[in-house]
Specification:
Blueprint (H helix, E strand, L loop, with lengths): L3 E9 L3 E6 L2 E7 L1 H7 L4 E10 L4 E6 L2 H11 L6 H10 L2 H9 L3 H5 L6 H18 L13 H11 L4 H14 L5 H11 L1
Parallel strand pairs: 3-5
Antiparallel strand pairs: 1-2, 1-4, 2-3, 4-5
């Protein structure tokens, strides 16, 4: 329903903010990681996850789209609700959490308040393959730019081409022409694939 809010921070605390968007103040729960990213800002953009329960509609905000995706993956696991998901994201950086899940580090996840051994194992079991497939690039903010060959490769893979074959073709193109735009590189690759 909501993708993000961009506005003035009317109030900030380590656990929540009130963000003024065109005269409307939204109470948004945040993680400590998000707080560390926005604490010096007056205006900010928060990626929003709306959680609807029988008795409440609660907004959770994140400094990056990657953190929001990780939060939504975490709360998709049985036994982990939005507050526990926020607690997990407050305990470590999103990169550290994703790394712990992908590498099966039960002990690190178990140290988080509210996570016992069974929940830690379930979290790893349910999310390990999913997060491996997404890769660490999923945590990167879309604002961070990829190189032109990386963008072209991503586009070709999304179009359904084999990653190894597309990479080989792009490397061949780069040997002959180095100053191409992403669009031109994709067009040349499509002719050769």
């Amino acid at each position: 329903m909501y993708e993000y809010f961009n506005g003035k921070l009317a109030y900030k605390a380590p656990t929540h903010v009130v963000i003024d968007v065109s005269g409307i103040g939204y109470y948004v729960h945040i993680s400590l990681y998000t707080f560390s990213q926005i604490k010096d800002q007056e205006n900010c953009k928060l990626f929003i996850s709306l959680q609807v329960r029988e008795d409440s509609h609660t907004l959770y905000g994140f400094a990056t789209e990657g953190e929001k995706k990780l939060f939504e993956n975490l709360i998709s696991v049985s036994g982990i609700g939005p507050n526990t998901g926020r607690m997990i994201l407050s305990s470590n950086t999103p990169d550290e959490i994703q790394s712990a899940i992908v590498n099966g580090q039960v002990a690190l996840i178990q140290k988080i308040k509210g996570i016992g051994p069974k929940t830690a194992q379930r979290l790893i079991l349910e999310l390990q393959d999913k997060l491996k497939k997404q890769g660490f690039e999923a945590l990167a903010s879309p604002i961070q730019s990829q190189s032109i060959p990386e963008e072209a490769l991503s586009a070709l893979v999304m179009l359904g081409f084999n990653k190894a074959a597309a990479e080989k073709v792009l490397n061949t193109i780069l040997k002959t022409e180095s100053n191409l735009s992403v669009e031109d590189m994709i067009k040349l690759a499509l002719k050769r694939l």
